[in-house]
Amino acid sequence: xxxxxxxxxxxxxxxxxxxxxxxxxxxxxxxxxxxxxxxxxxxxxxxxxxxxxxxxxxxxxxxxxxxxxxxxxxxxxxxxxxxxxxxxxxxxxxxxxxxxxxxxxxxxxxxxxxxxxxxxxxxxxxxxxxxxxxxxxxxxxxxxxxxxxxxxxxxxxxxxxxxxxxxxxxxxxxxxxxxxxxxxxxxxxxxxxxxxxxxxxxxxxxxxxxxxxxxxxxxxxxxxxxxxxxxxxxxxxxxxxxxxxxxxxxxxxxxxxxxxxxxxxxxxxxxxxxxxxxxxxxxxxxxxxxxxxxxxxxxxxxxxxxxxxxxxxxxxxxxxxxxxxxxxxxxxxxxxxxxxxxxxxxxxxxxxxxxxxxxxxxxxxxxxxxxxxxxxxxxxxxxxxxxxxxxxxxxxxxxxxxxxxxxxxxx
Length: 411
Fold this sequence. Notes:
Strand order of the largest sheet: 3-4-11-7-9-8
Radius of gyration: 32 Å
Largest sheet: 6 strands, mixed, barrel
Distance between the termini: 27 Å
Oligomer: single chain
Number of strands: 14
Order of helices and strands: HHEEHEEHEEEHEEEHEHEEHEHHHHH
């Protein structure tokens, strides 16, 4: 058995001559445990919000999106895209044309983002799960073309879920010069009927700006005949996402970018990751402050065990072994605090997930969820544990060496 560790373990659980040392040791463990618990709970809440936002985008964004690396559009019959479509793991492939346009209805105007999609768009995404209204999701019937706007866009333009008449959409022509004597000739215009439904992703980016239309409508409006701005894919169940994505990247080469859902919303998720990192750094500083309690506890322990140190030296213990006794003592306090804090933190996360103890507001319906979401990630717990151990070790290393050296020199 490791001699310094054995003595340190005895010191940790044994009675001291001064009861205050036991109290301070308990406070040290409690301080580290509280800081560790705060790390577990805070990072889990950030994970919960990340997963919540990701679930919103899942209803609208495809699993994989292939976009041109240069420029806005690419030929729909590009051999590279054809090869990607023909992969056996691809279940649904949808051609999309997307760009900005001006919408006009009953004298009201708004800049919108037209997303033209194939007829299989409802198979590609979970769009039908986020529809509201008494109609059905449809793109066209005979020569009629239908639009499905975001719920905030419909509210802003006072369209409702079912608007009478036509919604007029304008986009500038891609070629030619503007004739000031006839400015209308510089724009392409087309009209949409209501599908009788609106969609709600619960994200302003989509709900306020987007309208889903047939891809033929978007191609005609933006002058993109035979072109696409993205190829959106859904994989067959049981396919290995990472391997299929890597395969598509190899086929796409430098000509196309292959984006998963996180990469499609890189700005949103990067901000959330930065916020989580800042919270981790801030709480780690609080943990460092909590670890100073350990220094106080060890200082009093070294003084209390002054006679024991003399005995151990007489029995043949080296100065290094004596220093290691108190180092192990500090590390065990840090480990005890880490384990206790992680257990309490996990219990609080479970209670929040099961019962929604901490709520977002008093009135239901004001928020997307009623209580703070939590999601415990295994690697977060591992990082927290080793962070506590590292901070605890660094906090006690120099003070213990300094104090034990003074004590030994005094002897």
